[in-house]
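RESIDUES AND SHAPES:
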Amino acid sequence: RDLEAAAGVVLGKGDAPQLLMVVNPDCPFCHATWKEMRDSVSRGELQVRLIPIGDAEKDNERAAAKLLTVGNPTEAWDKYVGGDKKVLAGDAGDVQLRAVRNNHLLIDRWNIRSTPYLVYRSKDGRVKIVQGKPDRIAAVLTDLPR
């Protein structure tokens, strides 16, 4: 519930199984995980709710906040992961920066130490967590209800 209430953006269709993903915009493991999930999102088989975090000392906090403001978050995230850093450039606004900082406080409370951090409800109804890049994203995807 904490992650569902956190500031984030939805990638994919609303009727697909949902996976929550805490991401740092500059995390290479987040990028690799997204690239493995992207086709499932495009086909409408998966919905990903990105919960962005960032480091106040680095530009990625601003990029995380900017992600909360874009009109098409799926396209923006895909381009950013593909190397187009300009898509999340510019001022995001104080409200969005506070939201990203609140997300960061949440992961500190939960003692989350690596990204991506995936949370989903499996076919059997249990909540499952994957901390870090999954060894096999296909195993996660087949564990989701259809």
